Amino acid sequence: MDKLNFIKNGVSRLPPGFRFQPTDEELVFQYLKCKIFSCPLPASIIPEVNVCKYDPWDLPGGCDEQERHFFSSKESKNRNSNRMSRTTKCGYWKATGSDKRISSSTCNGIIGLRKTLVFYEGKSPNGSRTNWILHEYRLINVESPTNSTQNYGNEIGDWVLCRLSMRKRSLEYGSTSTHNNATNNSRLMFDFMMVNNNKTCSSTSSSCSSSSNNNIEVSSNHHENGYADF
């Protein structure tokens, strides 16, 4: 049976209705490991692109895709450094957070590392942060059996696997205007309830008791939302 090939003109093309959504473990041990050791891949679906030579919006694939995957070759900044060059035409990729360790029970002595990078437009270090996110996967030879994420050996191979995505600001960072509107609405609703209770309690005790029962009944109906609609 021929290996499935979904790459056309350097771009991954899947049939309608199909999605490529592998886990971190699958990306590292089923794709990156096979790529580095020249083993057959499960499917030819990840194109080879030097990711750090292009701005994220110029990389192959449609912008409507939630995620795009690439095999990228390692390139050093200079002869005396093992760091990859992350500067593009319009900006640069900057690492954020700590690396995530990815292990598999079937691969002793080898782990994966996932580095998260954010794209900044402009020149370092004064660039403007964007919503472009890059997960960079590497294969590592573990020096000794340990659960520590700090005890790593040497990197294996000349390839990394990259997963490109764009996060919505409202989901990742939270929209300031949306947050302010929600806060204002909560305050208005709270004030309205307070005023309504004050007016009710200024009436006779019987009407106050009746109104309180009504308020309790409405609140119980909307307990999950935390407020009542008026």
How far from one another are the termini? 64 Å
**How much strand?**
15-25%
**Any low-confidence stretches, pLDDT <50, length ≥5?**
170-197, 199-230
State the total count of DSSP E strands. 7
At a glance:
This protein has 230 residues and is of the alpha+beta class.
What does the model show?
The chain has helices at 24-36, 169-172, 176-201, 205-221, and strands at 7-8, 11-12, 67-73, 91-102, 110-121, 128-141, 159-166. By secondary structure, it is of the alpha+beta class. It has a five-stranded antiparallel β-sheet, with helices on one face. The chain has a two-stranded antiparallel sheet with strand order 1-2. The radius of gyration is 27 Å and the shape is globular. The N and C termini lie far apart (64 Å). Mean pLDDT is 74; it is low at 170-197 and 199-230.
State the main characteristics.
230 residues; alpha+beta; five-stranded antiparallel sheet; two-stranded antiparallel sheet; 4 helices; globular; disordered C terminus
Task: List the SSEs and their pairings.
Blueprint: E1 7-8, E2 11-12, H1 24-36, E3 67-73, E4 91-102, E5 110-121, E6 128-141, E7 159-166, H2 169-172, H3 176-201, H4 205-221
Antiparallel strand pairs: 1-2, 3-7, 4-5, 5-6, 6-7
